[in-house]
Write a structure and sequence with these properties.
156 residues; mainly alpha; Arc Repressor Mutant, subunit A; 64% helix; globular
């Protein structure tokens, strides 16, 4: 079980890295040099929402310090618009600009092509659904307090 568990974690890591490489290749193909692959995925995940930096971090996609740096760069390069919150003057909200929307659309088209290729026989929808369900359960397992060395004091 341990070997299979470690192999699974390694595959997940490799899938993430490969996704970043594919996004980078697409940005390179389009001649986009002032945006990296992580930033492109941040834009894609923001989509049409307006979020605070904290909300981006809490979604679980990014580390806090990296989000702040990447948001700053994307604002400087015109991919994001940043505005101070009217309700909490210490907080800022970001949304995708028109320039950023082009990147969101590009990444969406890339993922649409991948989904179509998968449907044409590589992996069935049922297999992908099963994989998603197992990965979701593994994520829940790894997210429990016990996995961080914390005792479950309420269940004694």
């Amino acid at each position: 079980m341990k070997e299979l568990y470690l192999d699974t974690l390694q595959i997940v890591e490799r899938l993430h890295r490969q996704t970043l490489e594919i996004v980078k290749a697409e940005l390179d193909r389009l001649g986009i040099r002032d945006l990296n692959n992580v930033q492109a995925l941040i834009l894609f995940n923001i989509g049409t929402d307006e979020l605070s930096i904290g909300e981006l971090t809490h979604r679980g996609y990014y580390l806090g310090s990296n989000v702040s740096y990447n948001v700053k760069k994307m604002v400087e390069n015109g991919y994001l618009k940043q505005e101070r919150s009217q309700h909490d003057r210490r907080s800022f909200h970001v949304r995708v600009s028109d320039r950023g929307r082009e990147v969101v659309d590009t990444v969406a088209q890339l993922f649409d092509r991948h989904a179509a290729d998968l449907e044409s026989g590589n992996i069935s929808a049922e297999e992908l659904k099963q994989s998603f369900e197992v990965m979701s359960r593994l994520l829940r397992f790894l997210s429990t307090p016990q996995q961080f060395g914390q005792r479950n004091t309420w269940a004694a």
